[in-house]
Amino acid sequence: MGSESVAVEPLLSGYLDVGDGHRLYWETVGNPRRAPALYLHGGPGSGCTTRARQYFGPEFHGVLFDQRGCGRSQPLADSPSYDLTLNTTQHQIVDIEALREHLGIDRWIVMGVSWGVTLALAYAETYPDRVSAMVLGAVTAGTRREIEWITRDMGRVFPEEFARFVDVLPPDARAGNLPAGYAALMASTDRQ
């Protein structure tokens, strides 16, 4: 028999206004009398899942939130009028610190997965006195080699999906730097 997951419902949840027109969705799980631990999801763009709640049993007071522009936070980054200049790593770090203050937490364990690792490391560098420990999974450093693997080399594994991924770009951008091509599309005023 396979292991079945049990639904974990939030103890508390809400929205935090962090400025620039952004409201972050957050929730807590686990035991509020135990060690606080922040979960930083991957993506960017995904958001926290109900499965992520299961990382925090009665030994921890888990805090999860959907990062700026993601999940249940508002506004979503896929909105045509979304201003990406208001969603940088530095904005995300300030958001995390605002959430910590809002919840009245002195120090917390910071757990990051994938993109969340990069964000966890940046937060810990900025606020080392607020981090009691770190747990990092699916570690990525954002190196050129990793980006090439994710954006181009995975095309060997998923050729049909890769074709759809690059077909969105103008023909002259398909052979070059794919993230730069997508960044140009995202910054374009041409809605098509």
Fold and architecture overview:
Strands 1-2-4-3-5-6 form a six-stranded mixed β-sheet, with helices on one face. With 192 residues, it is α/β, with parallel strands linked by helices. 28% of the residues lie in helices and 22% in strands. It folds into two domains: 1-141, Alpha/Beta hydrolase fold, catalytic domain (Rossmann fold, 3-Layer(aba) Sandwich), CATH 3.40.50.1820; 142-192, no CATH class.
Can I get a quick summary?
The chain has helices spanning 89-102, 115-126, 144-151, 159-167, 178-187; strands spanning 12-19, 22-30, 35-40, 60-65, 108-113, 131-137. By secondary structure, the chain is α/β, with parallel strands linked by helices. It has two domains: 1-141, 3-Layer(aba) Sandwich (Rossmann fold), CATH 3.40.50.1820; 142-192, no CATH class.
Instruction: Note the overall shape.
Output: globular
User: Hey, roughly how much beta strand do the residues contain?
Assistant: 15-25%
Radius of gyration: 18 Å
CATH topology of the largest domain: Rossmann fold
> Helix- and strand-based class?
alpha/beta
CATH superfamily of the largest domain: Alpha/Beta hydrolase fold, catalytic domain
Distance between the termini: 50 Å
Strands, total number: 6
**Uncertain spans:** none
Number of helices: 5
* Strand and helix order: EEEEHEHEHHH
